[in-house]
């Protein structure tokens, strides 16, 4: 596996990367709240964070295949 030539631009500008990062953050917080929920009264927060994390993941998957200005090859030829 080899990184693309413009990996820094993709990492900083691509919506798919941002949405995947939000997905991971929600999943981690959901796990933390699930563990804490065993010992406290926080019950629904874990479930909602995991649902939102799954939605961010799905949105990131869709964004990965959509045209993104300044990142898509079509934009560089204009």
Description:
The protein has 78 residues and is mainly α. The chain has four helices and no strands. Helix 2 packs antiparallel against helix 3. The longest helix has 23 residues.
Element layout with pairings:
Layout: H1 7-13, H2 15-37, H3 44-64, H4 73-76
Helix pairs in contact: 2-3
Largest sheet: none
Q: Which percent band covers the strand fraction?
A: under 5%
Structural class: mainly alpha
Q: What share of the residues lie within helices?
A: over 70%
Number of strands: 0
Keywords:
elongated, 78 residues, mainly alpha
Q: Could you give a quick summary of the protein structure above?
A:
It contains 4 helices and no strands.
């Amino acid at each position: 596996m080899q990184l693309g030539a413009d990996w820094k631009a993709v990492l900083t500008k691509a919506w798919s990367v941002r949405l995947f990062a939000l997905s991971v953050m929600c999943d981690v917080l959901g796990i933390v709240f699930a563990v804490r929920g065993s010992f406290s009264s926080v019950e629904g927060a874990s479930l909602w964070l995991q649902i939102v994390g799954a939605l961010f993941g799905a949105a990131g998957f869709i964004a990965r295949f959509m045209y993104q200005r300044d990142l898509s090859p079509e934009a560089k030829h204009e």
